Amino acid sequence: MENNVRIQAAEVTRLLQADPASATAGFVEFAMEYASDNHQLHRALVLKLNYSSATDPRHRQQLVKEMEGLVQSISDLPEAELPVHIEEEAPNQSVVATPKIVCQTEGISKTFRKSGFNLANIDVSFSLGEITGVVGENGNGKTTLFRILVGELASDEGQIRYPYIQQDLPNQEFDWGAIKQEIAFISQDIPKWFGSVRDNLHYELAIHGIKGQENDDEVDYIIYRLGLEEHQNKSWSQLSGGYKLRFALARALVWKPKFLVIDEPLANLDIKAQLVILNDLRDLANSYRYPLSIVISSQHLHEIENVSDNIIFMRNGEVVYYGKTNELGKERDDNTFEFKTMLSLEEIEKRLAGLEYYHIENTGQEYIISTPLHVTYNELLAKFLAAGIEIEYFRNISQSTKKLFV
User: pTM value?
Assistant: First the structure.
């Protein structure tokens, strides 16, 4: 660990000397990973911001020297004071690993008598450093499950535990009040707030008991981390939908929860904003300093699958699939593809005469075709082109939850 810090420190210093304008981002990332306290991290952020606004070459040169000095200060820390992560320990060392399961449910059920809806026998777990995507049509239990996970709704049956959170509680007792202090929930409808982004973040930390210089440091950190520098003094009405969501994330994360639950965050965002938010979430889950478990629901299946370690597919209040995203469909008996074309189903079937396939279905929005396993993506697309079928859209959904929808 210590040698790794030294090597990275040398590289950051070299880049600062060669091209400081481009190296400041790497300088901050180095501080985010290895700084021993928030004051060092705060100093790194301030130096970067000052450098970006400085115009006098001599002032910039002085700031670069200060950055180099901070890098040296961080890398010179004794090994015992460096941030240590269990996963980085040598495999032959005798280390008692801390629990990584943040939340675990066993047989969770909930019945709503008026509607007759039933959430039935939910057995799932959520681990530190992982993103779990929850998908399924509306009205199938996603939000109900989320409300139970965050303590807003009591289940009728089953148990829910928070091993990673409870390990820090006295006698590891189940205390909803203490557990909720480590859980952040962002609902689909983000409530309106008043004042500026920055003032709200200061307030959020204050109500969690974080005040003074530490409060300032943490606000600076999360504003930088989520790219809110240019928007920190704006009000609710001045922010776009994407930045309102970023603010909601900042407010949820500034006090460093261990469990983040987000219900349909992508619903009102354009595709560019969706990708930015999902990449932010992936980075946050992987954070060395403050890793957390993230649970997120969405109707944007492919985008969620790309960022999730695990997938839960729900139908009629039950879990139809729960497992690693990359293992979905591994044991399948066929390949499944979706495509769009202006041709009718009858014309498609006529032109594909001679192609080995099981069936084609018109879902109303696109076509779904099922083929034997040996018929590959490239082979099928070549067949379409050879048959003169003009394709507007083509995707392999053999290992996607989209297949479970159809």
Answer: 0.77
CATH class of the structural domain 101-327: alpha beta
- Please state, in angstroms and as integers, the Cα–Cα distance from residue 389 to each residue in 254, 311, 341, 347, 350, following that order: 52, 34, 7, 9, 11
CATH number for the domain running over 335-405: 3.30.70.980
Cα–Cα distances in angstroms (integers) from residue 17 to residues 27, 67, 94, in the given order: 12, 10, 41
> Distance (Å, rounded) from C-alpha 68 to C-alpha 104?
45
Chain-centroid distance of CA 396 in Å reads 24
Rounded to 10 degrees, what is the CA torsion of 311, 315, 319, 323?
Answer: -20
pLDDT at 287 over 80: no
The span from the CA of 255 to the CA of 184, in Å, is 9
Share of the chain above pLDDT 70, in %: 93
Q: Where in the chain is the domain with CATH 3.40.50.300?
A: 101-327
Query: Is 254 in contact with 204 (CB distance < 8 Å)?
Result: yes
SS3 of residue 111 by DSSP: strand
Check pLDDT > 70 for residue 383. Answer: yes
Paired strand residues for 183: 259
